[in-house]
Structure formats: structure tokens, C-alpha cells
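Reviewer 2 asked us to include a model.

Predict the structure of this chain.
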Amino acid sequence: MTRRSRPEMIAETRAKLIAAGRKAFGELGYADASMDDFTAEAGLTRGALYHHFGDKKGLLEAVVSQIDSEMAERLKAISAAATTPWEGFVLENIGYVEMALEPEIQRIILRDGPAVLGDPSGWPSADGCIATIRANLEQLQADGTVKDDIDADVAARLISGASTDAAMWIANAPDAEAASRKAVPVFRALMEGLLRRPGAAAE
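Predicted model (C-alpha cells):
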């Protein structure tokens, strides 16, 4: 049997703790999840958790990062499957809003995450999200789909903020399904305000 290297053992331990944290945070919520929940599920000691993540908040950060990455990949796939670049851009951003209906994302990313880790606009993933939106807008401006007199960076920040706020509103609404049905068409209408007027000439 091949002996595992130290980096492999470290990666395995981290993966076990993140999986245990994700399960506990998703099922119990951050406030009710305990260190014992994580370590018992992972079959590890508290010392391992402290060593790799520092504390419960550090573990939540790692779980949020993992879910964020998965969400980004799913949204890329939604965009890639669209019939036009514009529709892909719209569906990718609406997709984020609609993910607020998923229980795990609702609880960990949109409720406990902001409550414990602060404003999502300050999370490590935020800059990358804005950069992606900005790059997509610049391409849509280049092909004449989006108005070319709009500052792509400002628009990207506003779109990111609007989608995040909409998702958080849905996640915390008494009736999330009803809130989503209201939010999605309004969000799409806001996005369509970026489109060039029919027949408008490029400057």
C-alpha cells in the first residue's frame, strides 16, 4: 500500500472537516452547530479543527468558499448553454438570484454567511465576480449589444450588488418562492435597460 504524503494527508483532513462543517451548518445553522458536531462527523479531534481553521468562523469561511466556487461553475454552465451571449449574461445573473431558493445556499451563503462574515461585497470572491460581470459587459459593448456609453465597471458593481441584495431578500422572505417570482422579472427588466435602443448607431 502506497503511503500518503503529508500534503495529501493535510488535504484529506481539511476536506473531511469542510464536509462535516457544511453538513452541520446546512442542517443546524451556524449558531446551533457545535465543534463536537464537526469533529464527530469527520472522525477527527478539536485540535485538528483548530489547527486547520482556527475556529468555527474559520471553518464557515472555508465552507462558504467551497459553495461559492460550486455556484460559480454552475452559473458558467448556465451561461454557456444559452442561445446568445446576451441571454447567457442575463441568465447567469438571474441564476444567482434563483439559487436563493436552495436550502443550503439560503442558510449558509445568504443568512449565516453575512451575519457571521459580514457584507458579501467584502468577501474574497466578490472582486472576481465583479471582474467577470465587467468582462462580459465589455464584450457585449464591443459587439454592439449593450450601450457603449455605460461605464462597464460601475454597471458590473451595480449588477453584483442588485443580485446579491435580491438573493438575500428572497432567502429571508417569509415566502421565498413568492419573493423569487417577484424579483426575477424585475431584475431582468433592470438588465434590459443596458441594451442599445433598436437602430441606435454606435458612436
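Confidence is low (pLDDT under 50) at residues 199-203. Residues 65-193 form a domain with the Tetracycline Repressor; domain 2 fold (CATH 1.10.357.10). We have added this to the supplementary material.
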